[in-house]
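In practice, a research group might receive sequence data for several interacting partners and want a quick structural hypothesis before committing to experiments. The following worked case mirrors that situation: the sequences arrive first, and a predicted assembly follows.
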Amino acid sequence: MANRPDEAAGKGANKPALELHVPEPTYRPGDPVDFAHIHVPEAGAQARPDEVCDAIETSSLCYDLVRVLGDDNKAHGPWDPKLDPDTLRTMLHSFAMVHAFDERMFRGQRQGKTSFYMKCTGEEATSISAAMALASDDMIFPSYRQQGILISRGYPLIEMINQIYSNKGDKLKGRQLPIMYSSREHSFFSISGNLATQTPQAVGWAMASAIKGDSRIAATWVGEGSTAEGDFHAACTFATVYNAPVILNVINNQWAISSFSGFAGGERTTFAARALGYGLAGIRVDGNDPLAVYAAERWAANRARANGGPTLIEHFTYRAEGHSTSDDPSGYRSAQEREEWPLGDPVTRLKNHLIELGEWDEERQVAMDLACAEEVKAATKEAEKNGILGHGLHHPFRTMFEDVFEELPWHLKEQSEQAIRERETKFPEGRPGS
Amino acid sequence: MIEAINEALDLKMTEDPDIVVMGEDVGYFGGVFRATAGLQEKHGKNRVFDTPISECGIIGAAVGMGAYGLRPVPEIQFADYIYPGLDQLISEAARLRYRSAGEYIAPMTVRSPFGGGIFGGQTHSQSPEALFAHVAGLKTVIPATPYDAKGLLIAAIEDNDPVIFFEPKRIYNAPFTGYYDKPVEPWKKHRDSIVPEGHYSIPLGKARIVQEGEAMTVLAYGTMVHVAEAVCREKGIDAEILDLRTIVPLDIEAIEASVKKTGRCLIVHEATRTAGFGAELSALVMERCFFHLEAPVERVTGFDTPYPHSLEWAYFPGPVRIGEAIDKIMKA
Ligand SMILES: Cc1ncc(C[n+]2csc(CCOP(=O)(O)OP(=O)(O)O)c2C)c(N)n1
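A structural hypothesis for the assembly, expressed as tokens:
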């Protein structure tokens, strides 16, 4: 039996007393920021193991940071995905589009056109660059900050806005919170508000694909805060047990609303290193380096497709904006953090890379940003014809009762009739669109 | 009943290559109750396999498989262990069709042994059906006979909605009279034991009239059907006994017709009383049959305690509790 050190000295004499550790982020509002403790390795310095290597061979990558784009705006090392300029411009265009979209929708929320919105500023690469490394019919199990994937997969902006406005054009019939998109056509799974639930589902989908001898793989996205949920651990266990063709993307943007990553266990190890205990391959990647993100995702996709197994990728990034329209980050973190973030901004880095390659310039960037803003504006106008949240142009009342089950059972039929009766009493003149 | 369940699984797996059976110990061993015995050997490891002990993982993976286009039939080893998977059932499986407006569905049948009577203690005896009845989008099925077990399970697997299929483990191998000291007739000799070969299904949402009668209506499901039947027989009550078979969807027509005919209603279930499904049944009968009632509706249920181990014979709604309720109703 392990005795307390000086038990003989009697009760209370045994010191030190036990202490609880409650994590505290390094900087609070008003604090000057110094990110010197974040180790930013040289771009190109990380080895790229064979895609079907044993998971254990990725262990050093779990603590390192895969980087391709250097301070010289050039691509370096074995992880350079060697993308052609057209692909890079397509990526940059999706970045610009998601940025314009976020700006407009954020404003729309402030104007009362919808209840809620969430930006992905600073994290564009973790969705767009990652998804571009997958096949268009690989299945995406997203969290809520991956609007970039839908945009890069060509989902019409107007459909996204209809969903955000919960109007009569909303394909989800006004049932979901704004940004909780779903598009089967784009192999994009319906988003849940319950964090991390999508992770075991992605693994199940990947298992199904393997059971059927299909060639499609699944990828899921989850915030670093949400990795504390049991679902994530169930997902890791299932993924490893069945060698499921799945990629688990953990977006470590440092903050889960106001709780810093320490509350998900990030103080003592990396999120990528979670992979090792499960026997998954793990990669920690500079999430603000679009080329590195692309390369890591591609590595994992090739591995999955070759029956090499699942991969957990930690995208080390920073949530540049608030958590959502309901959040004010100035209340809990230093305003300087965003400016000082040592890995920069993915949009700027990709832009500078293309300029460095002689394939882009500032004027074209300005023109592209403008064109995207115009396109989003036009889509918004178009979507607004279908109504905005709470302004009458919604789906008929009866639709509230549909899709609970495949067929309408008696009790829902009765309740549907009641809702319609109530409407007639409440709005004798009827409401438009209902 | 356990053979009937095995037959239903085997038959459906043979018919439909998209059906996958998974759960703790269901593969090589065939399940702790042997419900999946022989299936892996016959249908292969790709379609019948063991899972990690992670109910959240089992049901979560089943949601993903359903979204892919498979029809998973996960087993949760005991209904008591469904709670770690509850969020995946309630927030995900049950609501996927609704939240995606029909784009994605989760056509799974979660099988799970439930109920007491085998000295399983608190963690192998619970009847959590009311919890699921409360959730929009889930169907809850509880067979009481081998014939129904096969037909209902086939219907559940064919259904495109997520179904919770609760198997009353007390009657896996024989019906139950409600007495611990009386020998139980094995299923082989029971009149409800005949299980035809081949495919047949029993529509979800249709009750079974166990016996017709005039004196009162008894609403029950699972093990309690047999207990109630035995008590009525013993007391010589000409009761009309309805085996509900599914509590969602509920056969309201059969309930209404019967209570309007008899004017009296007894509800029997094994689950705890407060906010149990009996409360819902009682309210429905009140709302729909009040002017036909000649006595207050009575509920006979388990007690509002955790399920006890050594005293389970005292917990279980048996002949005494049911008998008293019958007397009360008949005297009113
Ligand atoms: C199961 C569950 N618990 C709590 C919440 C409330 N919630 C919404 S977002 C969030 C923070 C998530 O942080 P993280 O996973 O790091 O993702 P990020 O927002 O940083 O992208 C919380 C706690 C929820 N949606 N679901």
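Before designing any experiment, note the following. Residues 208-330 of chain B form a domain with the Rossmann fold fold (CATH 3.40.50.920). Chain B touches chain A through 46 residues (CB under 8 Å).
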